[in-house]
Write a structure and sequence with these properties.
The strands form 3 sheets. This protein has a 6-stranded mixed sheet with strand order 5-4-3-2-1-6. With about 375 residues, it is an alpha+beta fold. The chain is built from 11 helices and 16 strands. Helix 6 runs antiparallel to helix 7. The chain is globular, with a radius of gyration of 21 Å. The protein folds into 3 domains: about 120 residues, Rossmann fold (3-Layer(aba) Sandwich), CATH 3.40.50; about 150 residues, ATP-grasp fold, B domain (D-amino Acid Aminotransferase, Chain A, domain 1, 2-Layer Sandwich); about 70 residues, ATP-grasp fold, A domain (Dna Ligase, domain 1). Bound molecules: adenosine-5'-diphosphate and magnesium ion (MG). The site of adenosine-5'-diphosphate has 17 residues, from strand 8 and strand 16.
């Protein structure tokens, strides 16, 4: 036995952001201080099977060959003794137990509260937001509702259900055209990485965009298009969260779609973003307010639109933002004086603190 904390990193998963999660997890594992932590891993395949001991690096190189050599596991629902168990009954490292889970997972079934719910049922401490914060951070419609309630500025929007599209498409299109006008952005409510999102400049494009987005979700959000810069801030903490300095994303395309995010390296980030001091300060206040509004914990990246005349709109919060060494979330902290490795230390401490605070339990 040693007294290093056992950190179990979970990565992969069933969302469209599977590959991003693998790269994020690889960075996290490489950078966790191995004098303090012993690292255990679980890789979740795209079809939702959990494999013990898989390393992200192996998955990047030869997923098909490697995965069958690992043991498939499941959670044991025994809150007195949280642990994973092998489906074939074999013995797992550290008997399937750990001190904290770090779900380095993006998108649905990873970042949306479902995985967090499983971890709560089992009784594991974990890094990041709980069930409520994660699910509010995923659903763009409900997220906007709590932002609005907190008095945060957001762009005008309309929520449409897939069933409304089926029964009254013309009415929906008319309502959007009159209330929001063009261009507008059509988004599935519960995805990420710009999947299913389109920009529409007229009624025909709007119909196509609504039908396309409805392939991904039963609920859609349509927003008035704004001409603005995209500014992002990182938030860290639990009850007294703090905000980093702002950074700017400059997409290589008309908007920051999936291709601009992951396939075309010519999208740029500018840190710190060039903004007036008063705008920076306002953004930092809004970032923490947005974090608190959804009830986030640990970490969150809050994304904004800032127009030419410095009007600010909160676009969204991501409760498990991209976490590679070149991702905005850690880069903003590095530029704010907190190196990647120390950021990971803080996230683990915050996860343990949140567990104690929310369960009223002492850690053993
Ligand atoms: N209302 C809007 N006005 C202008 N551009 C937008 C608007 N909404 C989204 N976009 C563009 O689409 C991108 C993806 O939208 P976003 O809501 O951030 O979805 P995701 O959660 O998939 O990142 C944004 O980064 C931005 O480039
Ligand atoms: Mg976004």
């Amino acid at each position: 036995m040693n007294d290093k904390k056992k950190v179990l990193v979970i990565f992969g998963g069933q969302s469209g952001e599977h590959e991003v999660s693998v790269i994020s997890a690889e960075s996290v594992i490489k950078s966790l201080d191995n004098t303090k932590y012993e690292i255990l891993t679980i890789g979740i395949t795209k079809d939702g099977h959990w494999f013990w001991g898989v390393k992200p690096q192996e998955w990047k190189e030869s997923k098909e060959q490697i995965t069958p050599k690992h043991i498939q596991v499941s959670l044991a629902l025994d809150p007195k003794e949280p642990k994973f168990i092998a489906l074939d009954g074999s013995k797992l490292d550290n008997n399937g137990k750990c001190d904290i889970v770090f779900p380095v997972m993006h998108g649905p079934k990873g970042e949306d509260g479902t995985l967090q719910g499983l971890l709560e049922m089992t009784g594991f401490p974990y890094v990041g937001s709980g069930v409520l914060g994660s699910s509010l951070g995923m659903d763009k419609d409900r997220m906007k509702a709590v932002f609005q309630e907190a008095g945060l500025p957001i762009v005008p929007h309309i929520t449409v259900l897939r069933s409304e599209l089926v029964t009254q498409k013309e009415k929906v299109v008319e309502r959007i055209s009159q209330l929001l006008g063009f261009p507008c952005f059509i988004k599935p409510a519960n995805l990420g990485s710009s999947v299913g999102i389109s920009k529409a400049s007229n009624k025909e494009e709007l119909v196509t965009a609504l039908e396309y987005a409805a392939n991904f979700d039963r609920k859609l959000v349509v927003e008035k298009g704004v001409k603005a810069r995209e500014i992002e801030l990182s938030v860290l903490g639990n009850d007294n969260a703090k905000s980093s300095i702002p950074g700017e994303i400059v997409p290589c395309k008309d908007f920051y779609d999936y291709e601009a995010k992951y396939l075309d390296a010519s999208s740029k980030s500018i840190i710190p973003a060039e903004l007036k001091e008063s705008t920076k300060k306002q953004l930092q206040e809004y970032a923490v307010q947005a974090f608190n509004a959804v009830g986030a914990a640990g970490l969150g990246r809050v994304d904004f639109f800032v127009t030419e005349d410095d009007a600010i709109f909160v676009n969204e919060i991501n409760t498990m933002p991209g976490f590679t060494q070149i991702s905005m979330y850690p880069k903003l902290w590095e530029a704010s004086g907190l190196p990647y490795r120390e950021l990971l230390d803080q996230l683990i401490d915050l996860g343990l603190e949140y567990y104690v605070d929310s369960t009223n339990k002492k850690l053993s």
